[in-house]
């Protein structure tokens, strides 16, 4: 299995190339050359999440690693979860369940993709006798999950830019209290967009790297993160009905990585009814699915900050695979003109959307209302991101048949202000978060407007 770019220039890439490179050199996103098919009869015999992963992950890694190496790696990949099963499924009623993906060490679903990425980074670096710098910006949960996943690997140093803005204190403290020699949380005086610009510039410039050193991208366009997430869609379908009925998944989304993983699972053979694309008031995806209007607008700050985006990077993969049937020329044309020109799909192709997708945009007020509704009527406490997915299900109820699974992407304890505003109190918070609260913060304050950040990485490299 090899990989190629959605824009057609970068082709015949191995799993390892794609892992270490992140973004394709033509600006596109990597895709597998074909969709590997999963034998559901065999997968049905699996018990645990790791058993499932052992059937899924090797389908993508054969160009670089032997299956027995990958199986061994998977046994050690997901760690420090507070649930033995890694994932819990909470039934609201017979037609609606919550897939709790927040039992990992950073209390958000990003642990699934990033722990897998870190394992493969480390195996590759060991093999090649090299080191790497992880360099990224975070608006919430990516930074902490990346830091946590990489911190025990001495071959990797992590430099994560923390912008000014909307992230919760706990989210920040998860990054600033790690206290490891190879972890550098940077409080940058700028917005998330300023920080992302610096990261982009860093990936071009690379002046702070040592000879032969890798610069690794941990944002959600990295294909290995998608693989980690595909595994939990198969796992939940297995647990809920052994693949006997197609399910709906309601996914609270920003960069479309989690939705794309669901789509990928269905292309690999998982029975699927509908994907509910649930967004906050940053509604570019909702405008596309409802009006064929994918146009960039400025970012609104919401109470679900990990979904505050102006564009949804992984959406390019869906455009390429689902709408354009892998026509990289058209994909490349659309994206080379974006955002100056909106992305619009020709009407007859766009109409396919409703076979597979429903969408809804949920504002902050409805998010609060939904959190209160579930607490009051079901005794269930959810975080604001999860509530966006839950509210979308309620609003679209008349259009939904089959059982629905909503994804709980973060533990509610990560967002105490939102809980307080909803009049909800939590009696139990995860150990990993409790630990963070009592530790002293240590971070580096640096300027986004000059070369301080690049100089800082160089000095500490
Ligand atoms: C990152 C994140 C999301 C959005 O995920 P995408 O893959 O970018 O769509 C949703 N909820 C939480 C809690 C997150 O951290």
Q: Report low-confidence residues grouped into runs of 5 or more.
A: none
Main sheet specs: 6 strands, mixed
Tell me, briefly, the overall form.
globular
Q: What CATH first level of the domain at 88-108 and 223-421 would be assigned?
A: Alpha Beta
Helix-strand category = alpha/beta
Discrete helix count? 21
End-to-end distance: 35 Å
Average of pLDDT: 96
Q: Any idea of the CATH topology of the domain at 88-108 and 223-421?
A: Rossmann fold
Strand content: 5-15%
Assembly level: single chain
Number of strands: 13
Helix content: 40-55%
List cofactors, ions and other ligands.
Answer: pyridoxal-5'-phosphate
Strand order of the largest sheet: 3-4-12-9-10-11
Q: Architecture of the domain at 88-108 and 223-421, CATH level 2?
A: 3-Layer(aba) Sandwich
User: What Rg is obtained from the alpha carbons, in whole angstroms?
Assistant: 21 Å
Please provide a written account of the structure.
By secondary structure, this protein is α/β, with parallel strands linked by helices. The protein has a domain at 88-108 and 223-421: Rossmann fold (3-Layer(aba) Sandwich), CATH 3.40.50. Helix content is 43%, strand content 15%. The protein is built from 21 helices and 13 strands. The protein has a six-stranded mixed β-sheet, sandwiched between helices. β3 (88-93) and β4 form a beta hairpin. α5 (67-77) packs across α6 and α10 (223-241) crosses α11 (257-267). The radius of gyration is 21 Å and the shape is globular. The structure holds pyridoxal-5'-phosphate.
């Amino acid at each position: 299995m090899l990989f190629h770019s959605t824009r057609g220039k970068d082709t015949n890439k191995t799993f390892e190339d794609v892992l270490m490179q992140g973004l394709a050199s033509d600006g596109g996103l990597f895709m597998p050359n074909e969709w590997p098919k999963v034998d559901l009869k065999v997968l049905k015999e699996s018990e645990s999440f790791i058993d499932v992963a052992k059937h899924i992950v090797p389908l993508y890694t054969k160009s670089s690693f032997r299956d027995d190496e990958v199986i061994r790696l998977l046994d050690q990949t997901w760690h420090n979860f507070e649930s033995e099963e890694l994932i819990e499924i909470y039934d609201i009623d017979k037609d609606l369940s919550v897939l709790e993906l927040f039992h990992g060490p950073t209390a958000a679903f990003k642990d699934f993709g990033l722990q897998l990425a870190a394992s493969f980074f480390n195996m590759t670096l060991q093999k090649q006798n090299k080191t790497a710098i992880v360099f990224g910006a975070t608006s919430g949960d990516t930074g902490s999950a990346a830091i946590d996943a990489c911190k025990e690997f001495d071959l990797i140093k992590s430099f994560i830019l923390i912008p000014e803005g909307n992230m919760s204190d706990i989210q920040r403290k998860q990054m600033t209290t790690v206290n490891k020699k190879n972890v550098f949380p940077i409080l940058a005086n700028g917005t998330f967009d300023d920080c992302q610009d610096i990261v982009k510039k860093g990936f071009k410039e690379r002046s702070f790297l040592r000879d032969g050193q890798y610069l690794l991208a941990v944002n959600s366009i990295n294909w290995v993160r998608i693989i980690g997430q595909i595994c939990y869609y198969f796992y939940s379908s297995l647990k809920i009905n052994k693949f006997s009925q197609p399910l709906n998944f309601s996914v609270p989304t920003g960069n479309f990585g989690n939705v794309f993983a669901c789509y990928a699972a269905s292309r690999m053979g998982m029975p699927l009814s509908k994907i509910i694309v649930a967004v906050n008031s940053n509604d570019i995806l909702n405008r596309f699915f409802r009006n064929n209007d994918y146009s960039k607008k400025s970012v609104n700050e919401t109470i679900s900050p990990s979904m505050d985006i102006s564009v949804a990077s992984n959406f390019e993969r869906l455009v390429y695979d689902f709408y354009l049937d892998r026509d990289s020329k058209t994909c490349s044309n659309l994206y080379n003109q974006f955002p100056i020109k909106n992305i619009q799909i020709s009407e007859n192709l766009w109409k396919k959307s409703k076979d597979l997708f429903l969408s809804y945009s949920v504002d902050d007020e409805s998010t609060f209302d939904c959190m209160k509704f579930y607490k009051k009527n079901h005794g269930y406490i959810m975080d604001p991101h999860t509530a966006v997915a839950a509210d979308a299900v309620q609003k679209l109820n008349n259009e939904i048949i089959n059982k629905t699974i909503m994804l709980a992407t973060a533990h509610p304890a990560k967002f105490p202000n939102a809980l307080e505003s909803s009049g909800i109190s939590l009696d139990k918070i995860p150990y990993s978060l409790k630990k963070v609260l009592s530790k002293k913060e240590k971070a580096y304050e640096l300027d986004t407007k000059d070369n301080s950040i690049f100089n800082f990485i160089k000095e500490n490299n």
